[in-house]
Specification:
single chain, 2 domains, TIM Barrel, Ala_racemase_pyridoxalP-BS, 386 residues, Lyase, Ornithine Decarboxylase, Chain A, domain 1, pyridoxal phosphate binding, alanine racemase activity, alpha/beta
């Protein structure tokens, strides 16, 4: 998709704030290493730009992505830190993993036992399934067999032994119980296997925030992802700790492209689902569901000159209409996510309104929205500002 550099809808991304957050999370958890999770293009913020900022400041020790193509993008951009691909992967691209020094995830004993001969060193991460039930080892004997295979194969280098908690961002009694069960399961499966504890990686964003003092959790290498954005990754189900000082990293803006006087009772947008409640002004802005501002956001609001203005009518593919309190000049800025004066619309608010989570809101914001990078680091790393 072409980035619409000439279209007045944009996302502002503060690289200094993102780096601060990563450093603050490390301090909060007392982690030895930080593996910054930059999958889905850095949760929509720009994986390459974030990675360059984190490498420049030594805020990250490695990068974690979801697939090989994301990893190769970072390598081609000149990133030299370790890069780890999560998820199961077949054997067809092993040469690319080896040649580009990219860590592959081992999902099962069967995968490891049938591994083809390697022409170089393959770095691997051992997935442990403690209850997520996606991929990974869930049998202690098979983990022991895997460890022996790794230790006897000079072409294999163990990068990490990790697990993922399914309910670390939930406050319910059921979720707390399930988190405890996963922590116990880790102890049963891994702790007595003789692995170097420095290789353990157990804490994702939510585990890093709300379980940072749990003695059962290793913080040898944490994996913050969505948390880098400074949002509440539980969607507000759990309160953010008062002493964890994170900054908001991104905001989304547009401009008024058309302003017109509309009489009371006039239907608006597709389906004529709403009519103008009174005589007044309506603005059209160049953003819609193809930008990630989904149709279910009808009835929500944007901020114009420090005041909330309601979205009227169905959100269309490329345009959205807003009821104004007065006539504003074309080109007036509207805030979709962010702060303007005393008013603020957070990603969490948008997620609540959409009946979803902040991850979906942030990663759904389309590539055609230009990203404008701010902060000192944007100048240092030469981030593209659209």
């Amino acid at each position: 998709m072409v980035t619409a550099i000439h279209r007045p809808t944009w996302m502002s991304v503060n690289l200094d704030a993102a780096t601060h957050n990563l450093q603050e999370i490390k301090k909060w958890t007392k982690a030895d290493k930080v593996y910054a999770v930059l999958k889905a293009d850095g949760y929509g913020l720009g994986a390459v730009q974030l990675a360059k900022a984190f490498q420049e400041t030594a805020a990250a020790d490695a990068f974690v992505v979801s697939n090989l193509d994301e990893a190769l993008e970072l390598r081609r951009a000149g990133l030299i830190l370790p890069i780890w691909v999560l998820g199961a992967w077949d054997y067809s691209d092993l040469t690319l993993f080896v040649q580009n020094n990219i860590v592959i995830t081992v999902p099962s004993l069967d995968w490891l036992m049938h591994l083809p001969a390697l022409a170089g060193t393959l770095k691997i991460s051992l997935a442990i399934d403690t209850g997520m039930t996606r991929i990974g080892f869930d049998d202690a004997d098979q983990i022991a067999q895997a460890k022996k295979i790794i230790e006897t194969n000079p072409r294999l280098e163990l990068f990490s032994v990790y697990t993922h908690f399914a309910t670390s961002d939930d406050a319910s009694a059921h979720s707390k119980k399930y988190f405890d069960q996963q922590a116990v399961r880790w102890q049963q499966l891994v702790v007595n296997q003789g692995f170097d504890p420095k290789l353990f990686s157990m804490a994702n964003s939510a585990t890093s925030i709300w379980h940072n003092t749990d003695p059962r959790i290793s913080f040898a290498a944490i994996r913050p992802g969505q948390l880098i954005s400074g949002v509440n990754v539980s969607n507000g189900d759990l309160p953010m700790p008062q002493k964890l000082f994170l900054e908001r990293v991104f905001a989304v803006y547009s401009q008024l492209a058309d302003v017109r006087f509309v009489k009371k009772g006039q239907a608006l947008s597709y389906g004529a689902t709403e009519t103008m409640p009174e005589d007044g002004y309506v603005a059209t802005m160049p953003f819609g569901y193809n930008d990630g501002w989904l149709r279910r956001m009808q009835g929500s609001s944007v901020i114009i000159e420090g005041k909330r203005m309601p979205i009227l009518g169905r959100i269309t593919m490329d345009q959205t209409m807003v009821k104004l309190d007065k006539k504003y000049p074309i080109g007036t800025r509207a805030t979709l996510i962010g702060k303007d004066g005393k008013e603020q619309i957070t990603a969490e608010e948008v997620a609540h309104y959409s009946h979803t989570i902040v991850d979906e809101i942030q990663t759904t914001l389309a590539p055609r929205i230009k990203r404008i990078y701010t902060g000192d680091l944007a100048e240092i790393i030469g981030a593209n500002n659209g």
